[in-house]
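Worked example 3. Consider a protein that binds flavin-adenine dinucleotide.
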Amino acid sequence: MKPAAFRYHAPKTVEEAVAMLAEVAPQDGRVLAGGQSLVPTMAFRLAKPAHLVDINGVAALNCLTVAGGKLVIGACVRHAAFHQPVCEGPLGKLLTDVVHHIAHFPIRNRGTFCGSLAHADPASEWALVLAALDGEVVAKSARGERIIAARDFFKGIMTTALRDDELLAEARLPMLATDTRCGFYEFSRRAGDFAMAAALATYRNVGGKIAEPRIALGGVEVNPRRIAEAERALDGAEPGDKAFRAAAAAATAAVDPMEDITTSADFRRDLVLAVTRRALERAAAA
Ligand SMILES: Cc1cc2nc3c(=O)[nH]c(=O)nc-3n(C[C@H](O)[C@H](O)[C@H](O)COP(=O)(O)OP(=O)(O)OC[C@H]3O[C@@H](n4cnc5c(N)ncnc54)[C@H](O)[C@@H]3O)c2cc1C
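Given these inputs, the predicted complex is written out as structure tokens:
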């Protein structure tokens, strides 16, 4: 099938983009970023936006920089930018580990980090990273700018706190201390498929004990989130099999897994046990 008819707009500045969005949002106007989720849904006529505001010509949205202790990722930065470390230290390395789990090379060449956040697929790897690290996004509109914390951003399957006329202009991730250990583990049926469950673990080893643990899960519930029960099981424990298994068991008990035609909630819960422990093992080996 071909997409339904739409009007195409190509702003050159952020100001033009948000002015156009203000005009067309009431008529189901949408941002077009990498098109890797939007265009297929339009081709299937699951989405029929009357207007597309293509942000690919807005040079200012191509920024990828470290400022104020945060990695700032502009709306036009592609997944493929993360094939190489984009910043010093464990954060740059973590992002290169994660990116290879997103789809396939041609999709990574077009799809954007911020597009994944705006699309808010429950299994999005970048959404999991944002949630795990307590990142934030900057939403711009003709009315002004607001900063939305990760925990307030994701509102359900493919639903976010973004308003119809808002452009997700950039995402910000906190830089990680140089001794932060990070591990990511994803289970999917085939390479490039969406995750059926994924875990991201980070911690610091202070005097032989786990400090500042973070455990977050993606692809399990409607949104990725940190799992406080698993983090409590790790805090102050000696890094190793006993603590990692306890955290994985706590995560398993804490989640309310989604169910779909191929994956039961019980199976997803079993996956949580495995991916959490393996993410922690990878962090320990890092
Ligand atoms: C075969 C296949 C496999 C895939 N596998 C994975 C996978 O394993 N993991 C994964 O995370 N993703 C996967 N994807 C999706 C891919 O990562 C997309 O690139 C991503 O979901 C959307 O980014 P995009 O830039 O292409 O956004 P688009 O497709 O352009 O837009 C998606 C939605 O977000 C909105 N939007 C985009 N950018 C903005 C913005 N800056 N401000 C406001 N709204 C915005 C659009 O209006 C639209 O509603 C897959 C896609 C395909 C086709």
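Take a moment to read the result before moving on. The chain has a mean pLDDT of 97. The CA atoms of residues 151 and 275 lie 22 Å apart.
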